[in-house]
Amino acid sequence: MALAGVPALSYPPLTYPERLRTFEGHWDDNEATARQLAAIGHISDQPGIESLEEGSRCGYCSQFVQRDWSVRALEGALGSAHDYRGRFEGFRFHHAGCIHLQVRIPLEAQAVFPGLYGGRSVSETRDRWERMSSHARPKLEQDPTVSREQTASLFTLPTELRLQIYELILPVLDDAIEVMTLNSDSSRIATRAGVEKSGPRDLTKTNILRTCHSIHNEAVDLLYRHRTYRFGSCKVLYLFLRHIGSPGRSLLTSIDVIIGGREDAITLSLLAVCVKLKSITLSFSRAAISPPRPPPWVTDGMAALLELRGLDTVQFAKGVQFFHVGHGPYVPQDGDISASVVRKELMRPRGEEGGVRWVGAYLDL
């Protein structure tokens, strides 16, 4: 029976891996967008089959979204203070009342992109976005007061020496950095050290990253090299991945995260495009990776996790105490079948087919 106001389904919902495969070969230039769309229930709507416009369609409510709209909303970085109207207006991933909305749309996405899912007008959405983005990101442009000779003199130095200079200027970071939201329901993030620091924050130490594109591209790698970023939930990890944008995602090498929430699928889908990611430490907010007859968002979250590839190290946290987790997370033991399956899948080479089996919409371990 169709939901009120929602057309009857034209085909049964597919599993996450099946939805993801519909994008292959058609969305290769926008992999981050394609993976996130698959995570929220969409399949690729290829030209010449159902529509003359290229885009994606929800497998539950059949809502069609043009490709360029999706890319604009899902592939950029959070925090931009520009182009609110172009980012939000006329945008709907699902029909009102879509069953996928009711059970699986990530809570973070509803908070950050309410205009995409209904419930707020464009102006309300834009105002909310402006409040969340209190500091506009300055453009990475050449300062007109700096001569070309002054700029060029830095680049006459060997790369190794320039990196040493950047390292002296940038703030000192720990090998493991915990990222968290500023408030429990906030969409703004900061490091734990930044949240706990009393008094005004000194932001001048990172100004070198805003000097020009060349310096930014060289120096930003120092923020990710040999460092593990820790997250108390996939919601915070998703905010972080969107905040650092494609340049940061291309440099991220190691994370530590607690999974087991409604944001797992869309977060881990975006994490899959972090091409330098080599190490992950996992713990779970529930005691079973695949409980009996799990809800769809649990199945999709586990499917998205098992789609990660190319990792060298897969660990399960021991004694991890995150800043805002009241009850300790469940940590699989190395002898558990769940631990062995996760490790084997995540350490497969990039591009290799997975080895897990799906029975209907359920994972068969």
Overview of this structure, please?
The structure is a single chain. By secondary structure, the protein is an alpha/beta fold. The protein folds into two domains: 16-132, Inhibitor Of Apoptosis Protein (2mihbC-IAP-1), Chain A (Orthogonal Bundle), CATH 1.10.1170; 155-352, no CATH class. Helix content is 35%, strand content 13%. The protein is built from 16 helices and eleven strands. The protein has helices at 16-21, 31-39, 67-74, 84-88, 99-103, 107-112, 114-117, 122-132, 148-154, 159-169, 192-196, 213-219, 234-249, 264-271, 296-306, 337-346; strands spanning 42-45, 55-58, 64-66, 176-181, 189-191, 228-231, 254-259, 279-284, 313-316, 357-359, 362-364. The strands form three sheets. It has a six-stranded mixed beta sheet with strand order 5-4-6-7-8-9. A three-stranded antiparallel beta sheet has the order 1-2-3. Helix 2 runs antiparallel to helix 14 and helix 13 packs parallel to helix 14. It is globular. The two termini are 32 Å apart.
Q: Which residues form runs of ≥5 with pLDDT under 50?
A: 1-11, 80-88, 115-138, 320-327
Put simply, the count of helices is 16
What value does the Rg take, in angstroms? 21 Å
Compressed to H and E, one letter per element, the order equals HHEEEHHHHHHHHEEHHEHEHEHEHEE
Residue fraction in strands: 5-15%
Mean pLDDT: 75
The end-to-end span amounts to 32 Å
For this entry, give a set of tags:
Inhibitor Of Apoptosis Protein (2mihbC-IAP-1), Chain A; disordered N terminus; 2 domains; alpha/beta; 365 residues
Brief synopsis:
This protein is an alpha/beta fold and 365 residues long. Helices cover 35% and strands 13% of the residues. Mean pLDDT is 75; it is low at 1-11, 80-88, 115-138 and 320-327.
